[in-house]
Specification:
The chain is rod-shaped. By secondary structure, it is mainly beta. Helix 5 (410-424) packs across helix 6 (471-484). Strands 30, 32, 33, 35, 36, 37, 38, 39, 40, 41, 42, 43 and 44 form a 13-stranded antiparallel β-sheet that branches. Strands 2, 3, 4, 5, 6, 7, 8 and 10 form an 8-stranded mixed β-sheet that branches. It has 6 helices and 44 strands. The model is unreliable at 1-39, 185-247 and 254-283 (pLDDT under 50).
Length: 789
């Protein structure tokens, strides 16, 4: 069996067994070539777990104070290189040119320049702040699998005053390779190892030994002789990664419900594995967010060797800003190499530059795949080491590559925006906003304590003197902020329901809701109509209305706008009640005579009443007889008139707030009876006038004189004339005194209904009117009575 995925030469031999064991702790099978010495890529997949990296160093003594040259020579294998120097505060003003020899072809590259615009991101008191450990450094450069190098370092002006910093060292990083495991073949009986582990479990399996002993200076950069028992490394034995190589599947970072995670698309050429849920470290505080977690590769999946990290992470209390960087490592890479590039950056930061851990909180490659950076919890405010003076209470992402003259794709923009929204959201910060803060330490741009106003998603150059994240990417930040911003202006404008006391009522089986939003439709994936917190309807991001089916009873109604990146905004809950039950009447229309003036044609004043009830609430009752009139109450009362001896059907409608309605009717007849039909007692005198009903009335000024009627009906009214000379009369109902009326008036109104009485049902009654004999105005003039049957 030939082991692959492990370099076997004199500088890795001591660690190869450990690397294989660590990989085996997470996966069950190490790749073995077939009998013909070839691998079928479709039968294998990359394993999750620690990968051993190696640092090879070459000291570069300056030939002159302003120049250092490393002649072309062969080296141990590496894929990333950078230049470092002893004093982390010193700057190298000049150029560093390199060329490398490719392992696969043996050809030498053209000259490439290292980026020297890479200020230290370390804050005092951080895990990186260890005296004597930090070094000044260029940005690293990814060159792919190489085994030879040539270097030229030149100060900017060639003057002694621009001499190179002391302790120049060329650092060569080998990121190692992830082991592969055989996929399960159905029917073969082969047991397949777990393809991924949750982060917490994977980390528990990782070794906790001392630092990797492969970090040794290379005093002789000539390649070591291969072990005689092992074939020399060749392109066949260690093929360069390609975009079609399998890669670990992205892991979804911790996120709150209730939404499915929307993720930035992974490279189309990457073959995914099952997802594993990342779990945060115990330290730090996790805040809830409405932003779904991005899908990413966690540290175990990209092969982080956790034994390199010696100190626990620091935590802030929030994430107030989200820095955007580029790694300046070049764009000449396949996305299948990205995990190796991340491991190389990790090794560079720790082994070469002296950091405790990788400086960035997140990284993203040019295909949009996101990588967990500094350990400590994806959903926690982990303090990075990436923008000096602005690390605590900030997070960051670095785009793998150099973006000075060309920007990133929309896929990468979306990935940056998604992580920014995810990190800022739990603390209530909008990615489109800005804030004022202070630098905690001097850097190359600001003094400690200096006030600085920053965008919530700033570029590195906003916080330090650097061109990072490159002109082109920096110019794309406004678009990225817009993509990451909260959905704004979402509010419900109307729905086909009636509002009463804070609750909307509807009788329709489907409710239609309308809304407005200020965020551009292009940034909204969809709108969801939520009934009782559950999705009841979905419409495109261009829509401004939607519907949901409603069952009888109480509900809550909301509209949720889902951003194209997956985060969302939801309107406050509206109270909604589905109601298909019409009101009922507890009293059908009743007609009662009321006091007032009768017309000369004997039209009588009446009051029509009705009472309704509903399972929720009566909105109004309405008399339909002309003129129709609503009363917004469950009980209605309307002043009307009734013609003499004419049957009238009175109609009343009741409606509830949902729009359910019911109409009822009652037919009643009102009639007049002359005073001459009464049984008289005492002294009465008939008087005539066109102002009296029928032209006649009867009057008495004698105390004790009376008029008595017996009738059948449900409402009675005594009709009399008023005048300055008129006095009082006692009223007896069914032999019992029911009251006294005073007929005095300053003028002389005729045909007045002066006393009324109504019953719930029609019946026979007797009414007697007795003259009181009021002193000075004893007269009582009676013009008959009215009855409703």
């Amino acid at each position: 069996m030939r082991l692959t995925g492990i370099r076997w030469n004199r500088w890795t031999a001591a660690t190869a067994a450990g690397a294989v064991a660590a990989a085996a702790a997470v996966t069950a099978t190490v790749v073995a070539t077939g009998p013909d010495g070839t691998d079928d890529a479709a039968q294998w997949e990359l394993a999750s777990g620690p990968v051993t990296t190696a640092l090879h160093t070459v000291e570069l003594p300056a030939d002159k104070p302003t120049e250092a040259v490393l002649p072309q020579r062969r080296t141990d294998r590496f894929s990333m290189l950078g230049l470092t120097w002893k004093n982390p505060k010193a700057e190298l003003n000049g150029t560093v040119s390199v060329r490398t020899r490719a392992v696969k072809t043996g050809s030498w590259s053209g000259w490439k320049q290292l980026n020297l615009d890479d200020p230290s991101g370390v804050d005092p008191g951080s895990p990186e702040d260890v005296p004597g450990r930090l070094r000044g450094a260029s940005s690293p450069l990814w060159v792919g699998p190489s085994d030879g190098v040539e270097v030229r370092v030149q100060a900017a002006s060639g003057k002694v005053s621009d001499k190179l910093p002391a302790g120049l060292r060329l650092d060569l990083i080998d990121p190692g390779e992830q082991a592969r495991v055989r996929k399960h073949a159905a029917g073969t009986g082969e047991r397949r190892a777990p393809r991924l582990q949750p982060v917490a479990q994977a980390r528990a399996l990782e070794p906790t030994a001392d630092p990797d002993p492969t970090e040794t200076p290379t005093t002789d950069p000539t390649p070591a002789e291969p072990d005689p028992t092992e074939p020399a490394p060749t392109a066949t034995a260690e093929p360069a990664p390609t975009a079609t190589a399998p890669a670990p599947a992205p892991t979804t970072a911790p996120a709150p419900a209730p939404t499915a995670t929307t993720t930035a698309p992974a490279p189309a050429t990457t073959k995914p594995l099952p997802r594993a849920t990342a779990t945060a470290a115990a330290a730090g505080t996790t805040a809830a967010s409405t932003v779904p977690a991005p899908t990413l590769l966690n540290r175990a999946q990209w092969g982080a060797d956790e034994t390199l990290v010696k100190n626990p992470p620091d935590y802030g209390t929030e994430v107030r800003g989200f820095w955007v960087h580029h790694t300046a490592t070049g764009n000449d890479y396949n996305c299948a190499d990205s995990a190796a590039i991340v491991r190389a950056i990790f090794a560079t930061d720790v082994k070469s530059d002296g950091y405790n851990d990788i400086g960035y909180n997140f990284l993203v490659d040019k295909c949009g795949t996101i990588y967990e950076g500094r350990k400590g919890g994806i959903d926690k405010p982990v303090v990075g080491a990436q923008t000096k003076g602005f690390n605590t209470d900030y997070s960051s992402i670095a785009v793998i590559g150099t973006f000075t003259t060309s920007g990133v794709s929309e896929t990468v923009q979306n990935a940056i925006a998604h992580v920014a929204a995810y990190k800022l959201g739990p603390y209530g910060y909008d990615a489109a906003g800005s804030f004022t803060t202070t630098a905690v330490i001097d850097n190359n741009k600001f003094k400690a304590g200096q006030s600085v106003t920053l965008n919530r998603v700033p570029g590195h150059r906003d916080g330090d003197a650097t061109v990072c994240p490159g002109d082109s990417l920096y110019n794309q930040l406004p678009t990225i902020r817009t993509k990451a911003a909260r959905i704004t202006g979402l509010k419900v404008t109307s729905l086909n329901a009636s509002l009463n006391g804070g609750t909307y009522f509807t009788r329709h089986p489907t409710v239609t809701v309308n809304w407005t939003v200020t965020t551009a439709s292009a940034l909204i994936n969809r709108f969801e109509v939520l009934l009782d917190g559950q999705i009841a309807g979905t419409v495109p991001g261009t829509a401004r209305s939607g519907s949901a089916r409603v069952t009888p009873g109480p509900h809550t109604l909301q509209v949720r706008a889902v951003h194209v990146l997956g985060h969302f905004t939801t309107t406050p809950a509206l109270q909604l009640y589905g109601d298909a039950v019409a009101p009922t009447f507890t009293q059908n229309p009743e007609v009662a005579l009321r006091t007032g003036t009768l017309s000369t044609t004997a039209t009588m004043p009446v009051t029509v009443t009705a009472k309704a009830n509903d399972n929720t609430a009566v909105r109004f009752v309405q008399i339909l007889n002309s003129p129709a009139e609503m009363q917004y109450a469950p009980n209605g009362s309307w002043a009307r008139t009734a013609a003499h001896n004419t049957a009238t059907t009175w109609q009343v409608k009741a409606a509830d707030w949902a729009g359910n309605a019911q109409t009822v009717a009652s037919t009643r007849t009102a009639g007049l009876t002359s005073e001459r039909s009464a049984t008289r007692k005492g002294t009465w005198k008939d008087v005539s006038s066109t102002s009296h009903l029928g032209g006649l009335a009867t009057t008495s000024s004698t105390k004790g004189s009376s008029l008595k009627w017996t009738f059948t009906g449900r409402s009675f009214a005594l009709v009399a004339a008023r005048s300055p000379q008129s006095g009082q009369a006692d009223i007896y109902l069914d032999g019992v005194k029911a009251g006294t009326v005073d007929l005095y008036a300053a003028n002389t109104p005729y045909r007045q209904a002066v006393w009324t009485k109504s019953w719930t049902a029609s019946g026979s009654h007797t009414v007697e009117v007795v003259v009181v004999g009021t002193a000075g105005r004893p007269a009582v003039t009676v013009d008959g009575f009215a009855v409703v049957k």
